[in-house]
Amino acid sequence: MKTRRLSITTCLFGAFLAFHPASGQDTLPGSQPKMPASAPNTPEAQKEAARLALYPRSKSDIRKQLKLIAARKAPAGIAPDVQAAVNTLNAYRYLSGLYSEVAADSEFNTQAQEAARVCAQNNKIAHDLGGHTESCNLFAGKGTLTNSMHVYMNDPGDNNREERGHRRNSLSYNLDKVGFGQKGDYSAMRVFGKGSRNERAEQGWSYPGRGYYPKEWMLGNGWSYYPPDGISLGKETKVTMWKVTSSPKAALPAGTEPKGRKIAVAQTYAHPRNLVFEPQLPANAKGKGIYWVRIESEDFTDQYVVELY
Fold first, then answer.
1. Residue 203 is inside which H or E element, if any?
2. What is the chain's percent helix, strand, coil content, to nearest 5?
3. Which of 63, 133, 285, 291 is the most exposed place for a label (fewest CB within 10 A)?
């Protein structure tokens, strides 16, 4: 697969990225906050359920959980730099409403290290070099394994634009173990492989995630959406976005537009299990902003709020 030199504004180094387009099958959001089954069916309870559907995590919850994830220590046999990269992965997954207890696996680490070594030996990244390169996200550029994790999530470059495959692999639904390895300026993330989780995605998930989302964790101009199990997005999938002036309190009825300014979506790339779209956000888009997103594909509709803060 051809790769090209990338200029990364969020990381102070150039990089190459490569992913295997035929892999990365949808492999979990962690439990979304829900009203207890025994909760009274009162107007107040209904309002709270509606609020949680739009804003599943409070700002204080986000601050606390990101701090806890970053503080996770490497277990025996796992290098600190590998654990730091895994912590970064789990932070992104938590913010997207996903299972965020992914762990480094010793066997996967060995395979990722071999993939990085093979790339360094060949002075390039490609998935046909052997040494488990076919099972890894691959990265070439100066920086730590944590830096490579940020670049996988940004997933820049014309060759990655339509699929954002590194991001898709990192946000796979049932992902529960990974491996990282590095040799010189080459590194690999062993991400393909069956884990122990086997849960259905009852709700779509996204990057950036639903509700409050800290702006420093939003990299690049491409947004991603992944539909729930049983839904296959067609090429005609439509994305509509609005920038609204206040935090919504409840979902809108289908066909109703929120009060706000419509945001043009420059490009939409629809794949059955992976939607990438590029909203033309204002110049301060990495600052505060509340965005209503509506996904429509045949008889399927999903809509959610992203509040960058």
1. none
2. 25, 25, 50
3. 63
Which amino acid is it at 202?
E
At position 75, the amino acid (one-letter code) is P
The sign of the dihedral angle between the CA atoms of 219, 221, 225, 226 is negative
Tell me: the pLDDT tens digits for 261-293?
Answer: 999 999 999 999 999 999 998 776 556 899 999
Q: Omega into 208 within 30° of 0, i.e. cis?
A: yes
Which are the contacts of 66, defined by CB distance < 8 A and separation ≥ 6? 91, 94, 95, 214
**Token pair listed for 221:** 């101009």
> Token pair for residue 131?
């040494």
Query: What HEC string does 283-306 produce?
Result: CCCCCCEEEEEEEEECCEEEEEEE
DSSP code, position 10: S
pLDDT tens digit sequence for 188-214:
999 987 678 899 999 999 999 999 999
> Rounded distance, CA 96 to CA 88, Å?
13
Rounded CA-CA distance 236/246 in Å is: 30
Residue bearing the bigger pLDDT, 11 or 46? 46
